[in-house]
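Reviewers of the previous submission asked for a worked example of the structure-prediction workflow described in the proposal, so we include one complete record here. The input consisted solely of the amino acid sequence. No template or homolog information was supplied to the procedure at any stage.
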Amino acid sequence: MTLKNRISLLVSLLFTILFGLASTVIFILYSNYRKEEFRDRLEIKALSNIKLLVNVKQIDNQLLKIIDQNSINKLYDEKTLVFDSNYKLIYSSIDDAKINWSVDDLKYLKKNKTFFKQQGDYEVYGVFYDTNDKDFYALISATDDYGKKKLLFLRYILILSYIFFTCVCWVATSFAVRKIMNPLNAFHQKIKNINENNLDTRVETKSSKNEIDLIANEFNFMMDRIEVSYQKQKEFTAHASHELRTPLSRITSQIENVAADSKTTPESKSFLKTILSDVNQLTELINSLLILSKIDTKNHENNEVHRMDEILFSAIENLNKSFPDFVILFEIEENENLDTALEIKGNKNLLEIALSNVLKNACVYSDNKQAKVKISSEDKNLILSISNTGTTLSEEEQKNLFQPFMRGKNSKGTTGFGLGLRIVQRILTLHKATINYSISSGNINLFQILFNL
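From that input alone, the workflow returned the following structure tokens.
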């Protein structure tokens, strides 16, 4: 799970839990308040009936029932019972509702003065009234239909509010966190695209000193040091390679002179040819390292337009001079967009080196010293397909194909250092092109170079 999703989830869960707890507390408090308020209403009603019986001498039970029935404080489904000190029922309202009572309830009332309890859907309140002459007990029962409706309405309101605001919170939190994390996403994309060809990439920072900007500043400072170190390493490789070329050239010349001397014996000439072959390989290695060290976006920015077919023909011609036994078959696809696709901006010399290396690699590792080249276009993009027949690479070898000094099992018996394809990839990356290897069918190795226009 990503950091922004984790933050959104935690914030939303926290709000959901807190809002749920708050809604529950509000409902419980209001429920208790309703009970207390209804208990007070029952108490007032019970005491008013007792006081009428006690204080108004002329009133009788029938008159009290009429007064009770027309009271403005009439309760829903109400039932009132009044008992004297001998637990004798002296008054009962005309309602049909029933109150379950016992003498033990009245004794409990005398001891505790009041009680309030639930009997099914009814709520019963009992009160003990003490006068100078005699004692009275009153039990009143009713249902708080109005209060329960309000409580039910509050429950629905809280549930709907909980669902609605929880959904709003999840959406708003996700949007807000995504907006806050946008600089971090841009930071991630910058880092993701950094390679040895664009070490000068830096992350933009704002004046605000938040955590993301602090990390970006430290990252930029780190990239400054890496770029300086990398440039120093490349400069050292370039200088060392350049310095080694001079003595190797002298050695090569001296060996060739001695080998050409008529006084040199055939055995010595054979030995000198072996040495010369090793020196040439060493020279080729140094030249490859020198090319790699010089390939740099800053130093090879070139907007000059070249035709890739002309560069390809030049590379084939130069390759045939060095390896006359190599056979390169050429094919070009007829397409109305091909003329436009063949025009590539870049460095002609570097592109020729890249194509020469791929062609040489295809011929060297083929089983018949042949390679097939096909030029085509797709969506105005130029595609160069170079294929040969021979031993194919395993999946593990394909993963490391463009790594320096990597050589597959099919390289046994052939000279090389595993730098050719690495140079090709660096040059093509410089020109915003890609190279891919695949096994088209059977034992056919296929390299595809794609130039994005």
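The radius of gyration is 49 Å. We consider this example representative of the routine output the project will generate in years two and three.
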